[in-house]
Write a structure and sequence with these properties.
Blueprint (H helix, E strand, L loop, with lengths): L2 E4 L5 H9 L3 E3 L8 H7 L5 E5 L6 H6 L5 E5 L8 H6 L3 E3 L6 H16 L2 H11 L19 E5 L3 H12 L3 E5 L5 H7 L2 E2 L2 H7 L2 E4 L13 H6 L5 E4 L8 H9 L5 E4 L10 H5 L3 E3 L8 H19 L18
Parallel strand pairs: 1-2, 1-3, 3-4, 4-5, 6-7, 6-9, 7-8, 9-10, 10-11, 11-12
Bound molecules: NADP nicotinamide-adenine-dinucleotide phosphate (NAP) and glyoxylic acid (GLV).
């Protein structure tokens, strides 16, 4: 029997599965544990199931003297000090694939909302009522179909975003760390260096992980390359965009609109973004459907059960730690 600490309220079936495997499980009934609560409990714990908003740094990992696995409830692992985990022999797992289509849907929901000014229109209708059909309404938007989509980071989610673009008869450009020749052929995608993608696209959707290379990938210079009529969608990680520069570009009218699911200093949202009517904001809900969150929980539970049984877990991020004691 091992001790498993879950930092968030969790679906009962996921907790039941851990207990059925013979483990002692601690999880809050509501909300999430604070960092202090996690630090206090860690010395007794063999497995940690955590959120991407938990900062799993060296201090925290070192407190887990018995810790063998950290299962992150998300695909991005930028919240975890991977090299410290590897040094300490702690397996880190994530939840790829199961959230890909759900996150791409949200990216598209944001894109459509910004293009057709859905949030502004809804807000105005509630505040002022429906004044009756007019030919030139205050919420004239832009077409999505047939225009140019630029996907930055053509991985699992980026590809799912690009596929949807084809359904809207769009020309789809992409920029990624490496060329994807098979996808280019299959979907008719066109590779572009980042600067060219930015200057040619009507919609730019960011789908990269957060790494030292992608931090502020989109800053003042890149925003200036975008078309004045373009819309920027960020479903990657907040710090991929220089938020200060984005607010300045939107204020100056250098960009038509932005739609953001992620923020540079979550859970803080730049006050400038809150003031702008042409910005659509969602609180990091890319993967937030009931079915997908359940699948993510299942993957984390499977990873923990595997490691505690001495088996290589699915979705091991730091392969170097396996087999343990190697
Ligand atoms: P993935 O399959 O690993 O795709 C990431 C892609 O980004 C890869 O194609 C990679 O290129 C590319 N890339 C990496 N560094 C780059 C760089 N410097 N410049 C250009 N492209 C670069 O990951 P995924 O499953 O699609 O997830 C991507 C990210 O989305 C996650 O890491 C997470 O941060 C974010 N996400 C957000 C939400 C949300 O709720 N908003 C939900 C899920 C995920 P290569 O193929 O050449 O390596
Ligand atoms: C969500 O942001 C994730 O990385 O899964």
């Amino acid at each position: 029997m091992a001790n498993v600490l879950v930092t968030t309220e969790m679906f009962p079936e996921a907790l039941a599965r851990l207990r059925a495997a013979g483990h002692q499980v601690q999880a809050p009934e509501k909300g999430r544990l604070s960092r202090e609560q996690v630090l206090r409990r860690l010395p007794e714990v063999e497995a940690l199931i955590c959120l991407l908003s938990d900062r799993v740094d060296e201090e925290l990992l070192a407190r887990g003297r018995r810790l063998r696995v950290v299962a992150n409830l998300g695909v991005g692992v930028d919240n975890i000090d991977l090299s410290a985990a590897t040094r300490l022999g702690i397996a880190v797992t994530n939840t790829p694939e199961v959230l890909t289509e759900t996150t791409a849907d949200l990216g598209w929901a944001l894109l459509m909302a910004a293009a057709r000014r859905i949030v502004e229109a809804d807000r105005d209708l509630r505040a002022h009522g429906f004044p009756g059909w007019t030919f030139i309404p205050p919420h004239l938007g832009v077409d999505v179909w047939g225009r140019t989509l630029g996907v930055v980071g053509l991985g699992r989610i980026g590809t799912a975003v690009a596929r949807r673009g084809k359904g809207f008869q769009m020309r789809v450009l992409y920029h990624s760390r490496s060329r994807k020749l098979e996808l280019e052929r299959e979907l008719g995608l066109e590779f572009r260096p980042l600067d060219e993608l930015l200057s040619e696209s009507d919609f730019v959707v960011l789908c990269t992980p957060l790494t030292p290379e992608t931090h502020h990938l989109i800053g003042a210079r890149e925003l200036a390359l975008m078309r004045r009529e373009a819309i920027l969608v960020n479903i990657a990680r907040g710090p991929v965009v220089d938020e200060e520069a984005l607010v300045a570009a939107l204020r100056a009218g250098e960009l038509r609109a932005a739609a953001l699911d992620v923020f540079e200093r979550e859970p803080e949202v730049h006050p400038g973004l809150l003031e702008l009517p042409n910005v659509v904001l969602t609180p990091h809900i890319g993967s937030a459907t009931g079915a997908t969150r359940r699948r993510m929980a299942e993957l984390a539970v499977e990873a923990v059960i595997s490691v505690l049984a001495g088996e290589k877990p699915p979705n091991l991020v730091n392969e170097e730690v396996w087999p343990p004691g190697n």
